[in-house]
Amino acid sequence: MTSDTETILTTLAARGETLAVAESLTGGLLAAAFVEVPGASRVFRGGIVAYATALKATLLGVPAPLLDAHGPVDPSVAAALAAGARERCGSDWAAATTGVAGPDPQAGQPVGRVYVAVVGPPAAHGEPERVEVREFTLEGDRPAIRRGAVRAAVDLLAETLAVTLTP
Amino acid sequence: MTSDTETILTTLAARGETLAVAESLTGGLLAAAFVEVPGASRVFRGGIVAYATALKATLLGVPAPLLDAHGPVDPSVAAALAAGARERCGSDWAAATTGVAGPDPQAGQPVGRVYVAVVGPPAAHGEPERVEVREFTLEGDRPAIRRGAVRAAVDLLAETLAVTLTP
């Protein structure tokens, strides 16, 4: 994982762009995967772990009606979390995770249901800002689901940035 | 580590109190050490990884003059980070880390210099709010220093809460 996050940070550094994250079920693991790279501070600005649902609104600006209507585990919420991290941390790019790590289902979503999102600047002048959201149903126990969600966010970020990761 | 953070969360749950964190060099690892405990959501509200110095002011309300005068690796900044997490996350308790993980010294502080802080409600009526700050000089490489800072924050929190951790 370190080599993948290092590749992403190196790519962003070469482009003069910065990164932030917003996390729910991964609870800091996504931020940690970037901060473990020496020199991360050139690119990685910070992250917000909005574990309690109310903090998704107060810390990251996710609209409360969206949370009320869809619950915290939802593709629109994932996109809003990433947008909030990008704005509050003043970064070019942001990635976000939300999902159900278990042991119990949450807000009508099963254990293992995960949404990851990436937001960033337009690919070309005149195009809209990039917003990518992906849904997963991950297998395994709580640690496996959390690790899988980090992996999914890193992969979506790499794909959106057109960075090829070493298999 | 999981059993220690679980003990702390169980103690706080029994007291009806909540927890948040603010992190710099640990970059999400402290939050992750709590979120990995099943049922953490009863107690753990969230965390803010203010990795870029400017975010310590904007996301956590650390006074900019304090950052300008002392740099980000400073005992007063550690206390202000914890106080900011407590206020912004609406928790009873907060723990914070700041320090130099390396590979290079930062803002006049050597690699391995770490400050951890814990803030919380008064121990008794009429007493001031609790503010505990501790300085460490940790040995080892970047991962070891980051792990040591998480350990130090968990230990200071346990000590402040008068929780006995299993050795």
Automatic annotation (TrEMBL), chains A, B:
InterPro entries: CinA-like_C (IPR036653), CinA_C (IPR008136)
SUPFAM superfamilies referenced in this protein's UniProt entry, alphabetically: CinA-like (SSF142433)
Domain CinA C-terminal: 5-161
Entries under Pfam families matching the protein: CinA
Residues forming coiled coils: none
Name the UniProt record assigns to this protein: Competence damage-inducible protein A
The organism of origin for this protein: Dactylosporangium sucinum
